[in-house]
Amino acid sequence: MPEDTKELDGDDLLRNSTLYREFQAEREEILKHKWIESEKAGYDIGFERALTDWILKHRSKWRAYRQALARQQQAANSASTAGPAPQPSSPQEPKSST
C-alpha cells in the first residue's frame, strides 16, 4: 500500500460520519436545554427529563433548521464547482423558547 494512502480505522469512520456528527450536535443541544431548564428549576432535572422535554418542544424545528442548512451548503458546494453563482441567504436558527 502506498505511504500517502491512509486507511481509516473505525474511530475515523465514526468521526467522519454525517450521522454521528448530527447525533453529537443533537446531544449538545439537549445538554444546553438540560442546563437552562435545571437553572430555571433550581435543581438538576436530569438527562432523561431534558431529553424528553427537548424532543417534544424543540427537535422538529431544530432538525428542519439543520436540514435546510445542509441543503444550502450542498447547493453552495455544487455552485462553486459549476462557477460563480449568487449565494443563498442562510436560514435563521429557530429561537428556543427555553
TrEMBL record:
Start-end of Low complexity biased regions = 70-84
Judging by the UniProt lineage, the source's domain of life is Bacteria
Q: Where is this region: Disordered?
A: 70-98
- What is the protein name given in its UniProt record? DUF4032 domain-containing protein
Which species does this protein come from?
Answer: Limisphaera ngatamarikiensis
